[in-house]
């Protein structure tokens, strides 16, 4: 950390300055500073969701662009991801309401060959906050693991995440296996991740592509409402 950065007192910055500083600190992988700043914004009555989306997801987008352009490399991006996770750990209990009735159960995981989990964790967190029960399978999931968990957990929804163009086709492998086993219609299948789009979601036979965590929550809620309407009384 430079002397100049040493001198910055986060609590003395205005909201806009603090958001900018957080984006810089995320870029530099400064987990402690990110956690301190998240707490400052909470004390200033910021909504947890706004803290997630503006400085944290916003900062990660800048990191992503510079990673793509060869300005940042894997070790730096890992540090940034670690700082992001530090911020998310403070926000998680605030986003996850306690005592809310369960709307449905979702098994979620990142697909085989893919170790990106920040977006998936965010979706899990927001879904839990909205009243869904979440079974998080983590990263690098093969089809067998998804199927076993869906069956064991008696889940309503399968959520799959992929961040690489090379791993996104694996989602189709999972959906095709569900079809082969006659289980496709037992589950609502939602997919997401930066390289996906609606067309891809349709092409692989998912029920919906979710652009972000908020869309995932709304989509899951609307599918669950339809499922309940269909259920025999
Ligand atoms: Co990776 N990486 N990475 N990386 N990485 C990307 C994805 C990349 C686009 C960077 C770039 O070039 N600009 C690029 C992929 C290019 C491509 O496929 N065409 C890339 C690459 C190439 C790689 C490696 C191959 C690099 C290498 O080793 N040479 C390697 C692959 C490792 C592997 O998986 N096998 C790799 C490694 C890594 C790190 C380990 C360093 C780290 C991951 C740390 C971690 O996740 N624990 C990392 C990171 C952090 C990124 C970027 C910079 C950021 C991803 C992120 O966390 N975004 C990323 C660049 C980018 O995406 N702009 C990049 C923030 C997050 C909140 O957004 O994940 O999109 P996102 O999630 C959103 C939505 O997409 C959606 O909701 C979320 C919240 O709003 N969503 C869902 C996501 N999943 C969903 C599931 C749902 C619903 C919605 O289910 C219902």
TrEMBL record:
Q: Name one GO molecular function term.
A: metal ion binding
- Keywords in alphabetical order, please: Cobalt, Metal-binding
Gene Ontology cellular-component terms for this entry are: cytosol
Question: What biological-process GO terms show up in the record?
Answer: homocysteine metabolic process; tetrahydrofolate metabolic process
Pfam families to which the protein is assigned, alphabetical? B12-binding (PF02310), B12-binding_2 (PF02607)
Domain B12-binding: start-end pairs = 103-233
Q: Which residues form the B12-binding N-terminal domain?
A: 9-103
SMART domains from the UniProt entry: B12-binding_2
Q: Which family does it belong to?
A: Belongs to the methylamine corrinoid protein family.
Q: Which PANTHER family match?
A: METHIONINE SYNTHASE
Protein name per Swiss-Prot or TrEMBL: Cobalamin-binding protein
Q: Which organism is it from?
A: Pseudooceanicola sediminis
């Amino acid at each position: 950390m430079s002397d100049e950065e040493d001198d910055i007192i986060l609590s003395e910055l205005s909201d806009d300055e603090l958001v900018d500083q957080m984006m810089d600190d995320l870029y530099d992988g400064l987990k402690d500073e990110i956690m301190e700043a998240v707490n400052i914004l909470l004390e200033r009555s910021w909504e947890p969701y706004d803290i997630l989306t503006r400085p944290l997801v916003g900062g990660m987008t800048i990191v992503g662009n510079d990673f793509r352009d060869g300005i940042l490399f894997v070790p730096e991006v890992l540090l940034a991801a670690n700082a992001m996770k530090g911020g998310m750990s403070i926000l998680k209990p605030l986003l996850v309401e306690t005592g809310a009735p369960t709307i449905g159960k979702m098994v979620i995981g990142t697909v085989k060959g893919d170790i990106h989990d920040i977006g998936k964790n965010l979706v899990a967190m927001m879904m839990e906050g909205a009243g869904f029960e979440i079974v998080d399978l983590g990263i690098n999931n093969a089809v067998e693991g998804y199927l076993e968990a869906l069956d064991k957990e008696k889940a309503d929804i399968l959520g799959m995440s992929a961040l690489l163009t090379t791993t996104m086709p694996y989602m189709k492998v999972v959906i095709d296996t569900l079809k082969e086993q006659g289980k496709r219609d037992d589950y609502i299948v939602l997919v997401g991740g930066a390289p996906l789009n609606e067309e891809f979601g349709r092409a692989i036979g998912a029920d919906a592509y979710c652009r972000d965590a908020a869309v995932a929550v709304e989509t899951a809620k609307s599918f669950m409402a339809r499922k309940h309407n269909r259920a025999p009384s």
